[in-house]
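Run log, item B.
One chain of 407 residues. Sequence copied directly from the ordering sheet:
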Amino acid sequence: MRRMLPVVTGLALLTLSAAAQSAPPAPAQQAASAGTIKAVLDGGRTQVFTTPHDSCSADDIPDAMARAFRDDTGTIHFITASSDMYQSLGPTLTSLVHSCEAAFVSANDPDPAAYNDQVWLDSFYTLDGKKIAALSHTEYHGWSHPGECNEQNPNNYFYCEYDSDTYHQSNDGGYHFNGSKAPANLVAGVPQKYVLDAGAMGYSVDSNIVSYGGWFYAVVTDWPWPRNCSGQTGPNHCVVPLGGAPMRTTDVFDPSSWRAWNGKDFSVSFVDPYLGPVSHLGQHIYTPVPYMQFVNGLNVYQPSNVLVAVLWDYWDHELGPPGLYFATSTDLINWTTPKLVVTLAEISAHDPKGSYLYAYFSLIDPDAPDPSFSIIGEHPYLYYVRLDNNGQDRVVFRQRLTLTPAQ
């Protein structure tokens, strides 16, 4: 999976600006009504899943942010998906049992037009616990298919990567997921066919889905393209600029209904370039909003009715010291300046001897009132993954987080 973003194990205080309004306000209104939220990471961390000890197969590894939903029998499905998706099941988040029945297995389809090569189901939403929508991070790996990649260096295989977001659905409470054939499976993608050796390229949804103000929202992220592009003008400008942006719909079960931000409104539609020539490329390329290239998750903080974005700054220190950050918003366009929750140094301070990478942060509240666990109160869990040097030895951790509205 392309987007990786770490987390923590110490105590930290966080002050977040937030506006307690249910309808998206104008930027000036949002600033005028800003409040604060305090956040504290409490106590030690608990190991939830460890590879290879808890794995059902070599492909059963935590390779995405932890997500959860509750089915119509009250059973919780806990997922940190790989391209073969296994689940942990149980009545509570602290009494889960890992199942070795795969809920989804990637097809390894060699045709980039199928959007069905390597698929991570990593964003779920349900209204009734029976029918579950899943947005899926999908990677086409040209290097795995004869004639689709000339690059020989394994460290540069991303020259031949083509990402999109696809739709899958379960009709049995989340025990099995299926997708449609292209183009019906496409949710979000760049209006450009796969170009051999010219990547990486593509769009992907790296957040979960939240319901807010009458809409369902998620955040799309991307690879800037063409490769080594810079800026929005000039001979080497980016056709697809680096960043993330919100998209929304009124129907999470209709993959064609999502529309992304264009800088003024939610009017960016996603098209399949394999159906024919695409005119007016700009109508199908979103406009990034600040900070969302770091997104790992979205939640509605119920006490103040604000959106909280979970951000991990690992690669370039753009937000400040490497670590976990939160930002808040009431419209997904205007975000408060991200505030540091805990640094990477604090997270790794008590690790055993070795070299580790932290990634895949998310918030899940064990007392969430919604079956999709998108709503959080004052005591959610923070989940994250520690990866060893080889990338296969991984641990999923859980740690309590306390949020309180400031006076």
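Observations after the first pass:
- The two ends are 41 Å apart (CA to CA).
- The first helix runs from residue 27 to 32.
Flagged for discussion on Thursday.
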